[in-house]
Amino acid sequence: MVRRERYANPIRWLPSLYFTKGMSQVVVMTLSVILFKQLGLENSEITFYVAWLYVPWVIKPLWKPFVDRLHNCRWWLMLTELLLGAGIGGMAFTIPAESWLQGSLFLLWLVAFSSAVHNEALGTLYRRASAERGDAGNDVVMQRRQLVRTISEKLAKVVGQGVLVMLAGNIQVLYRNSIRYSWSLVFYIVAGLLLAAFLYHLYALPNDKNIQRQRVGLRQVWDECVISWNSFVSKPLATTILLFLVFFRLPEALLGKMSILFLLDSMHNGGLGLSPQEYGLVMGTVAVIGLTIGNVFGTRVLHRDGLRRWMWWMACAMTLPDVGYVVLSYLQPENLAFISLWLFVEQMGYGVGFAFYLSMLNKVSQPSVNDSHRTLAKAIMAFSMMIPTMLAGILQSLIGYHLFFIIVLLLCLVTFVVTALSNRLFR
Asked: Are the beta carbons of 171 and 182 closer than 8 angstroms?
């Protein structure tokens, strides 16, 4: 009975925590790209700078032991939400300044690191609460909570890359292209939302203070990482696993940030020239709906039929819609409905393919057996996004959008090759 009181019904804090998680990730991975583009940075600079924001997730094996052992989940969640609000509020204050780029990059890295730690503490708290309340074995309850988590994260996307981007665009129209002022106001709003979440969580989050602290040092953590890595690469078919984790999402990794820049860039530069309002409408509503449908469908059919039956279909779903960007870069249509249709299909396909990727990650890391392997797998996943993102802008600057998207489409062959290799994991 005591345990059930200590971990109150997660429905009190799950929606707000996952909304906070989603909003912080939108700031790091989407709003930062749009901000830098509107403030005049080159594509090669934008992708290079934003790629470094993956580092907190890449080095997760080094900091996760400290999060697990030094304090309880509530403490980490409160600290990181305070840092998220301070970092984003600091960005709002920094954008109008002369040294806005240096200040923004520092604060974005702070926000990215806080977001990564927040995500880890949130996952741990959710697992503990579900286990101690006896809900972990109840499929109906867990599916309902998964739906709540999904809706909350997607709502953050709607607000962050939809409503707030459109708000920035409308302010720029009203105040005659006052770009810095509009984005400063947007980041103040995000900081206010996260501060409100922080104040609510002071009341709503469960108290797990009886989790015992443990001593942990840098040498100990490093030794554990080395042992974990050695055991990971000594697994059967370790090379196949590594190739799959690194290369399955290669086309999407190249495409991710460049698709945002392509939509916003002027038609003279080969882009589609969408205004912030148009971008917010398309990517904040149509694309989010497509992503959600794809993710839910992919998760359900994998749960019902297993990975092997759907692996080729999901590889196709992940890659083939990329042909849409080749078409869009060639035609450069002005019809927003036509653009929205292609983006809906592409995001739905990505949602299906990403569900498969996460399921494969769980299979090869066996989190129920060795949590350190899952941590390493997620770090490799982040690394697989970081390097292609860093190089994408340089490549596009050299050859233009149309040829860039053709190369991305050709690299879809890599996804099919590693999918064929991963078939060995089922034997």
From this structure: yes
Helix %, strand %, coil % of the chain (to 5): 85, 0, 15
Q: How far apart are CA 273 and CA 339, in angstroms?
A: 12
- Answer whether 51's CB lies under 8 Å from 386's CB: yes
Give per-10-residue mean pLDDT for the chain (427 aa).
53 90 93 94 95 94 85 90 95 91 94 94 83 67 80 91 93 86 94 94 78 70 83 84 91 92 93 93 91 89 85 89 91 91 91 89 72 87 93 94 94 93 81
Instruction: Give backbone dihedrals phi and psi of 375, rounded to 5 degrees, phi first.
Output: -60, -45
Q: How far is CA 364 from CA 146, 196, 244, in A?
A: 22, 39, 10
Half-sphere exposure of 253 (CA within 13 A, CB side): 23
Q: 295-299, long-range: CB within 8 Å, 24+ apart, which pairs?
A: 295/150, 295/351, 295/352, 295/354, 295/355, 296/150, 296/351, 297/351, 297/352, 297/355, 298/351, 298/352, 298/353, 298/354, 298/355, 298/356, 299/355, 299/359
Please give the model's pTM, rounded to 2 decimal places: 0.91
Asked if 359 and 244 count as a contact pair (C-beta separation under 8 A), the reply is no
User: What angle (nearest 5°) sits at the alpha carbon of residue 299, between those of residues 57 and 357?
Assistant: 40
Spatial distance between the Cα atoms of 2 and 31, rounded to a whole number of angstroms: 43
The residue assigned the tokens 């005049």 is 40
**How many angstroms separate the CA atoms of 14 and 23, rounded?**
14
Report how far residue 330's alpha carbon sits from residue 25's, in angstroms, rounded to the nearest whole number.
31
Task: Tokens for 137, please give them.
Answer: 């074995």
Are the C-beta atoms of 349 and 317 separated by less than 8 Å?
yes
| Whether 207 contacts 392, CB under 8 Å | no
Task: Fill in the DSSP letter of residue 275.
Answer: -
